[in-house]
Amino acid sequence: MKKYLFILLACITVILAACSGESSSDESVYRTLYAGEVKTLNYLKTSDNNEFAVAANLVDGLIEYNQYGIVQPAIAESWTSNDDATVWTFNLREGVKWVTHEGEEYADVTAQDFVDGLNYVLDAKNESSTAWIATVVKNGNAFYEGEITDFSQVGVKALDEHTVEYTLEGPTPYFLSMLNYVCFFPVNGEFLAEKGDRFGTTREDLLYNGAYILDTFEPQNERILAKNETYWDKDNVLIDKIHYKYNAEANTVAPELFLRGEVDFALIPTAILDDWFNDPEKKDLVRQDTPSFYTYFYALNFDPQFDAEYEPENWKVAVNNKNFRKSLFHAFDRVSAMMTMEPYNPETLLNNSITPKNFVDIDGVDYTQLEPLAQFTNSESFNAELALEYKEKALADLEGKATFPIKVLMPYNSGSPDWANRTQVVEQQMENLLGKDYIDIIVEAGPSTGFLSEVRRPGKYAFMEVNWGPDFADPSTYTDPFTIGGTYNKPELAEGYLESNGKPKYQNMVEKAKATIEAAERYQLFAEAEAFLIDEAFVIPYSVQGDGYMASKLNPFEAQFSPFGVTSEKFKGQSLLEKPMSNEEFEEAKEIWEQERAEALAEQGQ
Fold first, then answer.
1. Which SUPFAM superfamilies does this entry report, sorted A to Z (predicted)?
2. Fewer CB within 10 Å: N-end or C-end of the chain?
3. What pTM value is reported for the model?
4. Is 163 exposed, middle or buried (CB count within 10 Å of its CB: 0-12, 13-18, 19+)?
């Protein structure tokens, strides 16, 4: 395997190798603004991303990830599971300390701390927002619902001071990835009992076993994270302090403060992006953000619940015709849609599957490269000629059954200007290609608040942009939303897909994959199910989420890499660059990282 990326970058460019530790100051400080305030420090209760970002740096769990997305020991030195992945045993490293806000040692971290943490999360009166993840543990849901009251019946045990065992409701080969969530973090039971409802309300009412201690916590002013000198892995904590400064207009003022050298990070809004790229002094300071693992796709709704004026019954007839769906599938020009959000490099955010690349792999092969899914992953769905061919087939199929043009209700969230623009582009592009005598796309502004509950969940759309993000390291996290009782577009209601057991074909495919423990076979079955979903044009894959452009003195390829959980919020392992990456340097570094990651995954699979 090649050397780690930050060493390689030193060979590529001296600029990227220079970090604050090499400056005249002995202390490395990362400075950034924030506008969204942390409402609680109680990591066992929250599901807020802002609070995850703080908790991940203050408290360690059993595992973490390296910069290539490979699970690493954290408080657990090692672990084993039984053959069907229902029982997992973790051996804890000795000498890990809980410390107070002043850095004074309070107690050792023990196996009982993980039991106490889960007990708090699964106690319904504590209203933990991540309790649903923890119900993977045997009897976890029964305890949460009050069906049993004896926590000793829940599948977590401290076998001794340094061994914790989890027994799960069923085979869960991806359980390690679930430990990346705060609901599986430890808590010192004695301290928790002493603090009661005050736990996590101030920096004094919290214990720390992570890379940093909360040195300052002044809401709507500042918070400072200082390196924990008792941390078990302190040699890999390269930034001494993280200084967050509150500013209600953070996104507006950050670019100017970055240019003045007062902060080390700023999002660059689209409105000023041209100015930065056209300015010789600014253009080398800005780069793309790394895409997230939220994928976007257009869902075709098989259970339309919108008003009669939009002809839901006529839509239902049309959407149940595969040729009609395929005509929309191939008529959607994804590049022109993406230009509304990413005008410079739209292709970099396009995604041809529901599961994104670099999410999970099997023996070093990316899941999206498994056949038959790879046929879609590696091809472009937009094809004007095919779209028109399917249009003619649909017209023949639906003659006398549907009324043309088919009204296609396409709502959007009125609080998102980019989304509003994109719906206009999609409407014009698809109608121009397929003809207004074939489809009449109706763009409708939905509420800016409560859009999910008022529009998407009740099914008040025909054709709409939606998204999904992963919860754990298994393909099922992306296939589940389309199963019976799932989140999206009710494909189980599509006509003509029921099999002999009374279930839709897609449902049977997913259930077969879920029942398979052996990883290679499991992933193959999921790839076949996802390929079926796309091939039948139940959905049209679109993109991964990108947050635009930024100026940052952090090297994103040094960060811990995980599509789920909180580990990607850690500053551990990262160092400050003397100057930010340019977009060209970012692309070069990304290419190297992807190659190194493939090699690391292949080596792990051997």
1. Periplasmic binding protein-like II
2. C
3. 0.82
4. middle
